[in-house]
Amino acid sequence: MLKNALTLSTVFLLVFALGGLVLMGSLWSKSDAHAIEETASNTDQTEAVGPAQIDGQIAPDEYARSAYDEGTDMTLYWTVVEDKLYLAISSPAAGWLAVGLDPDGPLMRNGDILMGYVLDGETILEDHFADTPTGHKTDLELGGSDSVLAYAGSEADGGTIIEMERLLDTGDEFDKPIVAGEMFVQLAYGEADDWTSYHGDRNTIVVDFFGSGEEVPMTVETDATAGASQMDGQIVPSEYAHATYDDGTDMALYWTVVEDKLYLAISSPAAGWLAVGLDPDGPLMRNGDILMGYVLDGETILEDHFADTPTGHKTDHELGGSDSVLAYAGSEADGGTVIELERLLDTGDEFDKPIVAGEMFVQLAYGEADDWTSYHGDRNTIVVDFFGSEGGAP
Fold it and tell me: Which of 27, 43, 64 is nearest to 148 (CA)?
């Protein structure tokens, strides 16, 4: 469903967050880290590099490759030697930091997450797996193993560095193999030395761990850089400025506002119809602006509806309005559905709701079949500010 995949998103939007969890599982620690010296900006690239020294310091030319991400002010360093990956991450805060390898979305789901912090000279590191779009557990809790062979960290000048060593292919089902080719990598950090503080910033970048020594192009998940989405029925990381995941339906909503247009994507866990209802004022779904569609034999069907009663809706055409969707596309994969669409923020149609700043109720629903007669598999109402941050439960 996702293009070689993320997810969020926006989505690492990302609807995505790597923080916000209670400390749990087995912890690793090492107390012999040393202070760093202005090495976080090091991006020297050389091929003739051996194994990194895992001491919590990044020396010039210690790593073969590096990439700096402006979106988070974080830097990723790496070297591949035989069957091992030597990895280092620097962040601008004296709190936790995390890297998520190869999530396939939505948001951070199925990402191999390595997260840690340095507290009173002691480095804490955990090996996690994102078993949901917005949550993760230690590999041990999920029945896997701790796969980091060595690690060390340090704090200096308000920032944090953590270095680590692991096998390219650990053989653990909750670790992602490091292979040749581009891989989505999520970066995030928090301001405190615990798992409960929310991320200070996050972003998704593209890395080829076996590629050239050049820095990898990156896309920052912000309104300032997010442009018009490509209407191809595929959601790629950072294609959308914002994303939110709804536990109640296992659906994800992605969006970007560019000038006078809204680019919207919806994913559902079923290979049937899906729908989003904008700004219903009740009871139930009455007066909601409903966009609903499905994918059948590779063809995407999408209709623009209006809920003229609490439990019923008709196409805008039937009610005397117009179909206001400018472009759309969909796809089905792995038992789920994705539909992307483009519309004006204010269509001028009395049966469409204008998209304005501030919180708006949004209804999500899906069915198990590719027709309008099958009842919804699940439904829920969330709150979204299309001009603000990610959405959530009302």
Answer: 27
Q: How far apart are CA 54 and CA 46, in angstroms?
A: 18
- Domains of the chain with CATH codes: 28-219 (2.60.40.1210), 242-384 (2.60.40.1210)
CA distances to 272, 294, 300, 330, 366 from 297, rounded to whole Å, are 12, 10, 8, 11, 18
Residue partners of 68: CB distance under 8 A and separation at least 6: 41, 43, 74, 75, 215
Q: What is the gyration radius of the CA atoms in the chain, in angstroms? A: 22
Report the candidate in 228, 219, 223, 238 with the shortest Cα–Cα distance to residue 70: 219
* pLDDT for 390: 53
> Which regions in the chain score pLDDT beneath 70?
1-49, 197-200, 212-226, 389-394
pLDDT of residue 83: 96
pLDDT at 58: 94
Q: Which two tokens stand for residue 298?
A: 């590779």
Q: Evaluate if pTM is beyond 0.70.
A: no
Q: Which residues contact 55 (CB under 8 A, 6 or more apart)?
A: 32, 33, 34, 152, 163
Cα–Cα dist 181/250, whole Å: 30
Tens of pLDDT, residues 297-325: 999 999 999 999 988 999 999 999 999 99
Q: What's the length of the chain? A: 394
35-72 residues labelled b (16+ CB within 10 A) or e (exposed): ebeebbebbeeeeebeebebbbbbeeebbbbbbbbebb
